Amino acid sequence: xxxxxxxxxxxxxxxxxxxxxxxxxxxxxxxxxxxxxxxxxxxxxxxxxxxxxxxxxxxxxxxxxxxxxxxxxxxxxxxxxxxxxxxxxxxxxxxxxxxxxxxxxxxxxxxxxxxxxxxxxxxxxxxxxxxxx
Length: 133
Description:
Residues 1-20 form the signal peptide. Keywords: Signal. This protein has one helix at residues 2-17, and strands at residues 24-28, 31-38, 41-48, 60-67, 70-77, 87-94, 101-112, 115-132. By secondary structure, the chain is mainly beta. The protein has one domain (22-132): Lipocalin (Beta Barrel), CATH 2.40.128. The protein has an eight-stranded antiparallel beta sheet with strand order 6-5-4-3-2-1-8-7, with no helix packed on it. The longest helix has 16 residues, at 2-17. It is globular. The relative contact order is 0.18.
């Protein structure tokens, strides 16, 4: 009996401190996102876009890799003026120690009506664990 209690107790301890699941939902700028993983590959796509965005459910925002506690890959900016051609740019950044947040940064050219302006801006993408989807 004591051995069974020890196993159950260890399971519950592990379950309460386990990192967020890779197939899970995360908040980003008021939208609910789905994180999916296969090996080191990672994808954030829109599960429930916030009102006013010109994207639908399943639209890919980020794809890349996780190496240790670091994400790097390609992010996208969407515009109602060029809905079929999002602007892609490189982002990277750390996973929080508790595995419940990811913050990535990247520089991208500012576009106006689908044309580059020659100006650059620094974007920050923050994802906060919400729940299992």
